[in-house]
What does this fold into?
Amino acid sequence: MVVDRRGKPRRGATAFTRLSNGGFRMRRTALVLLVVAFAAAPLGATITQPVKTVGGLISGVAGKDPLVMVFKGIPFAAPPMGDRRWKAPVPPAAWEGIRKADAFGPSCIQSIVQERKPWTHEFMTHGEISEDCLSLNVWTAAKSASERRPVYVYIYGGGFSEGSGAVPVYDGEGLARKGIVVVTFNYRLGVLGFLAHPELTKESPNQASGNYGLLDQIAALRWVRDNIEGFGGDPACVTIGGQSAGGMSVHSLIASPLAKGLFHRAVVESGGSSIGGAGISLGGRSLADAEADGQKFAESKGVKSLAELRAMTWQKLTEPGQGAAAVGGTGGMLMLRFSPIVDGYCLPASAQQVVAQGKQNDVPVLTGQNAGELGGLAGPQQPATAESFVEQARQRYGDMADEFLKLYPAAGDAAAAIAQAQSSRDQSIVSMYLWARERAKTSKTMAFIYLWDHALPGPDAGRFGAFHTGEIPYVLNTLSMSDRPFTDEDRKIADMMSSYWVNFITTGNPNGIGLKLWPPAGEKPEVMEVGDKTGPVPAAGDDAKFAFFERFLARKR
It folds into this structure.
């Protein structure tokens, strides 16, 4: 379906029809191409300053492109410090005069790592960290507040333990030049963002605790709703997007009643759009389990009350490492990981359960993963030997192992390596397709699925391939934020990918003039391969392999 920028069907331009089974088919032999408003760089003066926000007046600075204005470090919530630690965000104090928004605010508390290959400098958080971190950044090339351009709110990844709206590859200028108003923001991480505890639940007016980082995200979206028009953005045309933990956050926001009406489309990059445990889990721990972990955490710090935890410095609180707390146990060290939970308030049930019940915020979704992730997020798999491949197959597939080994034979070590790669690919892609098929049972909106296959250039390209996060400089059009040896082909791919994203942000459909047709997920088991090769590809090598994984993944749900 071709839609206008408010997500409504465009008369006379319908290219897809929903089928009774939740799929789609072409209504015309040729797709009616979308013409994306604002695709070209603007001409003339930039937006009038200062810009009025609910907190007060602000002034920004020119980007690398002087026609793009950047507003950095705008507070969207009060500092969550002292007695406000582990509480829902509240609006910031208003200011007098004109606030200069020319520098990123501090990132939220985390361990700063300069490089962790394959992730290098451009993917990492830099600069100051502080509990006073709830700020956001806006990039706009609008010339007036009346333009009402589409808005993209990007949520960073980092395992809910690191990340920042100021990470270089999240720079918004590349999409702003294509007509989008871009917003990035910070949300609380690790124990400061996701600690549940019985005392915290008891003091909460909503009888919930643990999802403070998600509540920060919702507060940022409310700020966008109330303020973005002043930057030339359209509060009725907001897309949320994120990668990894940011993508998991998008799933949570789709499931959260608190986010209803705050966004109109969603992008999930490598963030759990799969079923059967074939990717990142979106199951969500219960409040009771998270509270028990919170009590263990408090005991490990030698404190007996919430007041003592709030009095502790963040340095002491986050030892021995942000994102996970080491707690003594009989078998050694127990690692507690802090991430979103099913708290009954922000998240009434797991993201999958909310969608199955048809209670989600039903918006078009663009989602996918990278070829380098198909064997797992840790990176390239060790090539299997024939013996290890058969052994792993019997462990993984149980009574289905003989059938699996007929479909993926491993007569020798070379054949086993090929079978390992092909079976990992097929299982992952089938899982994504089945996720979209399940979603279609309760959704009226379309889903578009991709498989990213292009490796970032550099000395490790052959080793890491299309690794986890490697698509971001292309979809956000931020190659300029990296010193990698990019070629004209990289720039061509970045223009293509960012154009798909701009189209989706603008209309809920990635298709547009000059781009290869990207069909929505439908009755045909396929996804859109993008990057080096661009076009629809089957979800599995053949029908028998698809049927095998369909049955296997159904068992694991």
The longest helix spans residues 413-440. Residues 285-341 form one domain. The chain has a mean pLDDT of 89. The chain has 16 helices and 20 strands.
